[in-house]
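Researcher: Here's the sequence for the chain we discussed earlier.
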Amino acid sequence: MESKTKFFGHPVHPMLIVIPLGMFVGAIVCDTLYLFTENPMLPGVAFFNISVGIIGGLLAAVFGFLDWLAIPKNTRASYIGAWHGAGNVLVVVLFAISWWLRSTSVNFMASNVAFTFSYLAIGVGLITAWLGGELVFRLNVGVDRDANLDAPNSLSSKPAGTYGGPAHSHRTR
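Model: Thanks. This is the structure I predict for it:
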């Protein structure tokens, strides 16, 4: 199943997931460093990271949902995709709760409850990341089925199946 939402020949959803992934992990790193150093700048950085991560997560969810709609129903891929999407919405909600708790404190200091929501979100995110990997690497969701090791550039007007195939995939240059 090839992704239906593309930008310059590549699926949009995987391009966008790096934003919340990086921002949420960055927030966790800042939170953890704060617990050890008590550097007063770190809670503000974590708050900013969570803010951008929430926006990026919601944007990535739109394109992930559009890709999920293209998966044939009653398939393992559809089932896994539903859990992947729902789990990632939960990740964003958990971080949004942590963000809200921080927004009501002085200098965005995180309470133990805010920390708990963030760490729980990262734990859920590890599971949903595995599900996303299962979709792409095991079930080929979002992958151009005609692609091969010698497929033309995705910016070219040529389809992926134009070159190669098994007999041509290991050509020497």
